[in-house]
Write the structure tokens for this entry.
Amino acid sequence: MSYDALFEPITIGNMELKNRIAVAPMNVGYAAPDGYPNDQYLAFYATRARGGYGLIITTAAMVNPYDWAGSEGMNPLKFTDYRYYRFWSEIIKAVHYYDGCKIAIQLSPGWGRQGHPNVGKPGVPSGAPSCVPLCMDLRDYFKKCKGNLKQMSKKVPAGTFESMDLDGLINMSDQEYFSTDFQQFLQDFLSQMDPEIYSFIWGDVPRELTIPEITDLEDRMAVQARDALNLGFDAVEIHSPHGYLIHQFLSPKMNKRKDEYGGSLQNRARFLMNIIRKIRKKVGPDKPVWCRLSGDELQPGGIHHDEQCLVAAMAKEAGVNAINVSQGSYEAMGSAFAPDGEGDFTRWAAGFKKATGGLPIMVPHFLTPARAEKAIKNESVDIIELGRQSLADPFWPVKVKTGREKEIIKCTRCQQCYIEFGAKHFLECAVNPVTGREKYFPELWLNDTTFGNRLNKAIKKMSGFPQI
């Protein structure tokens, strides 16, 4: 079967992509101490560049240097200042060696209420738009992702979940689930079982950011976007989806401010729009800059699709030239971040396409080329992204292009990648044991490539040197 639509070129700003297949931005946790990119990140991205992807979008790289960034537990990459640039430049060069693959950096101003106090300074809470703590709904977490229960059961004492009536939990009404007595029972049960799981479900109370702190983050996003493009990144993605700091400003559930950054949608969107405008002022009109938006928060009282379409329209007016789709937040993690099956995120594409007057729309959550081809032909999707599927098989694009579809290693949606990462391990994959260890297998990304052949020629020239 031919999948020609997947391999058509597309232009965003002044960047042309060779095909419509991208690696979705994922925090895989491989960063070296203090957020430096390392050899594993280089090998991880280079392997997927060699695998035929037209675009790689990095994990969120923090521009926030402060103790209240709230991100230490996620072991994120950083892009705060010039100390990081030379390490990132090696990754950029490596990706660019592979047949025209492009790389975009996803820049983030912080984790907000989805983060935690600084590890070294536990008295410094994470900064957020308002002092509204996170509370995850476990009904959604277990119901929408069947792999979550199986994987979490491996991380807790034997018999832990058997002592709970999970079917009863999943089917509880809101009144029953959020009752004081049941919430107290859950907190007591999970805090004794595993304090880290407890803190992931019931977040710490964040501190409300001041207006000078907010404008400082806007300015830092603009400066780091300019420096990223000057360093050689092909594009910049603004990290504004699924419950992180920018999304928190957009959401009426999370943003209770009474000043110019809260209240009306225009005010709640001010942080994001100021970031876009300030980036455009720094980088000019043609560079590829886009934002990632949740199609819907999928939570009562949150920001829903109709308002997010208005945000997308404002973002286009402010200067973005594409939209990357996500959905939900930590509080709707089961149905949002990693649902079973494929194609769930396409439901938001048409709304964003219409709201932005036809900007390119990127959408994740695919497994098969047939479903991906359908999304591009029929569902207002311009670029399909592979997240968990790119962990399972970094060579998905080249296998599809060369008619080796049956050889694709398919993601089983088992959730091991999520649970391992949440358990403070490097992210790994149940069906691909090389994932997370690519640096040990240079034959995947170095041998018989333009990069590798260039190095081998240099080695041969040096091999005749007399020994000292």
Q: What stands out?
A: The longest strand covers residues 55-62. The chain has a mean pLDDT of 90. The longest helix spans residues 211-231.
